[in-house]
Each structure stands twice: as C-alpha cells, then as structure tokens.
Amino acid sequence: DTAPMTLEFLPPHRFMQTNIVVLPLDPNGPVRALHERIKLSGLAYEQPRFTFTPHVTLSFFRELSDAEVKELLAIRIREPIIVDRISAHRTNNIVNSTKLLELPLQG
Can you tell me whether residue 98 is helix, strand or coil? Predict the structure, then answer.
C-alpha cells in the first residue's frame, strides 16, 4: 500500500571516511518511513552492519583516483526522481547478488 515516492538528492559526499561516494536522501523522508515499515513487518533479516542511511551509492567496488572522487563529489541532480518500485536481493558475496522479487509501489 505504498505509493510511488518523489525524492530529491542532496549533494554527494564520501560515506563513512571511505572512497565510497553517495547521493544522500532526506534522512527522515519517505524512504526512511518505508524502511521502518519493512523493518517492523516481521520479515526475517540479518542484523545490518551499518545504521540505515537513505542514499544512492555512486561508487563502491573499485578504488577511485582523487580526480574521480572530485568529479563524483561535484555531481548535482537538481530534478526530483520518482521511485515506483522496490526490489529485494540476496547478497551471495560482495560482487554477486540474486534478485528475489520486485514490487511496484501502487498505494
């Protein structure tokens, strides 16, 4: 019963003192609300390694040069995006995951 979400990205930053660059979302917005609903739904899940922070990851697996990090940190997405579906994946290892399901947001 969740409706599609219109989201706005905040300026990018490095995630937790790494070279992982993320586009943050409103920490108290609709993604947080959906996360809390899923968390309290009774679904079984492993304890997360990190506290949930709504974001989109721009870089993750490979080491970035200083110039690449600077370029990613300069990105600005000024138009809102619409998220109209969510998916669940099983992470098999750090570079391999399997999509378990995809659900449209229709609320």
Answer: strand
The backbone region for 66, taken as left when phi is positive above 0, alpha when psi lies in -120 to 50, beta otherwise, is alpha
Q: How many helices (H) and strands (E) does the chain have?
A: 2, 7
- Write out the two tokens for 104: 């449209």
Residue carrying structure tokens 């997405």: 77
**pLDDT tens-place string over residues 48-79:** 888 899 999 888 777 888 899 899 999 999 99
pTM, 2 dp: 0.81
Q: What residue has token string 């917005």? A: 29
For the sheet containing 13-14, what is the strand order?
A: 13-14, 21-24, 55-57
